[in-house]
Amino acid sequence: MSKFVVITGSCGGIGRALVETYLKANYSVIGLDRLALGTNSNDNFIEINPDLEEFSKNKRYREKILDQIKSLLPNDLEEFILINNAAEQILKNIDDMNWQDWQSSFAVNTTAPFFLVQGLIEELKKTRGHIINISSIHSKQTKANFSCYAA
Question: What is the pTM of this model?
Fold first, then answer.
């Protein structure tokens, strides 16, 4: 069975746990993170290190990353999952936040997941795939300096 999952934020705590869980379930995992995990020697783990803010803003860069992901998928793809887990967590007092902070946060947390879905929609349709969007408790119950992230 040809089972693939793309996991953004694959180096963070939740991301690493997701990578390990899917590898144990015999999926091939494509991990997307600006940082390199570097510690996984499993042949079924492939790491790509995109800048998701740039991915959100730059169509050529986005196409390059999407082409790279698609080139790793087999023709006989039977199951496909996209897990949007990456997050840009800018912690600042609301008075100190600027336009770039807001743009960076939304680029990684909202725009990149949209463009990943858009760019991988045919693979998702073909396999009746799944999209899992990981969110944070801060969208409902937040604390000081989390305004941008909570939005």
Answer: 0.89
Q: Which domain does 69 fall in, by range?
A: 3-150
Paired strand residues for 46? 30
Give the separation between CA 65 and CA 54, rounded to whole angstroms.
Answer: 11
The predicted pLDDT at position 2 comes to 93
CATH number of the domain where residue 90 is located: 3.40.50.720
* Tens-digit pLDDT profile for residues 119-130: 999 999 999 999
